[in-house]
Design a protein that fits this description.
Blueprint (H helix, E strand, L loop, with lengths): L2 E9 L5 H14 L2 E6 L8 H5 L3 E7 L5 H13 L2 E5 H5 L6 H7 L1 E5 L6 E7 L13 E5 L3 E4 L4 E8 L12 E11 L2 E6 L5 H4 L4 H12 L3
Parallel strand pairs: 1-2, 1-3, 3-4, 4-11
Antiparallel strand pairs: 5-8, 6-7, 6-9, 9-10, 10-11
């Protein structure tokens, strides 16, 4: 029996959620998933359906999620359904929901220098199936400053600071970019790259997402 995935997109339009959803749908179909795409958080209300999935992919920057919408996702992931996403679409999704942040492993708080910052992404675990064979690389995009769950398994980092700001006096830090974690029996994957569709479909960003989807879905 094939794998199944649900993509739910919406929220702030600046992150081009519809276009990113199209890219992720194509990628998942290429990997053999049956994919459903929805533009409403009410897609999360059907607990029985969520529990039948292998993967949930949120693409919803900011916005608000109700308890009725959140709890079926929370319980589905805890029961073993995978959760995977990128950038603000997953870890700047619902700022008023600390439970969502706990589940996903982090929350965006800043992107010093805004878009167009040139920075390095350094792979810290070359043995993991998501990052195996991928070398360090540079991107020109937003460099996310995250508040991160110390329980996550970090697969890639970016050195900060690159640009000036009130964070600079704290000295150099290695900010997590790509990570995995577990939420109950469910696997969670996150990649902070993906500001807009051009970044999402660039390499190796898309390969990281492709492999992250597979890992989270236990494919």
């Amino acid at each position: 029996m094939g794998k199944s995935a649900l993509i739910v997109w919406g929220g702030w339009d600046g992150h081009q959620p519809r276009q990113v959803a199209d890219i992720f749908q194509r990628t998942l179909v290429e990997e053999g998933f049956a994919v459903e795409v929805s533009d409403t958080l009410d897609a999360f209300l059907d607990a029985e359906k969520l529990n039948s999935l292998n993967l949930i992919v949120p693409i919803w920057t900011m916005g608000k999620i109700t308890e009725e919408q959140f709890q079926p996702v929370n319980k589905a992931v805890q029961s073993g359904v995978g959760l995977a996403g990128c950038h603000g679409g997953m870890c700047d999704a619902f700022r008023e929901s600390p439970e969502w942040q706990f589940m996903t492993g982090g929350q965006w708080v800043a992107h010093p220098g805004n878009d167009g910052v040139r920075y390095q992404v350094r792979i810290t675990d070359h043995s993991h199936p998501i990052t195996r064979g991928i070398d360090d690389f540079e991107v020109s995009s937003e460099q996310y400053y995250m508040h991160v769950d110390p329980a996550v398994k970090v697969l890639a980092v970016t050195p900060m600071p690159v640009v000036d700001g009130p964070h600079v006096p704290n000295g150099p830090v290695r900010m997590p970019v790509v990570w995995t974690k577990f939420w109950g029996k469910g696997r969670v994957f996150y990649n902070s790259l993906g500001h807009q569709e051009n970044v999402v479909q660039s390499e190796p960003c898309l390969t990281l997402m492709r492999r992250g989807f597979q890992w989270a879905a236990k494919a």
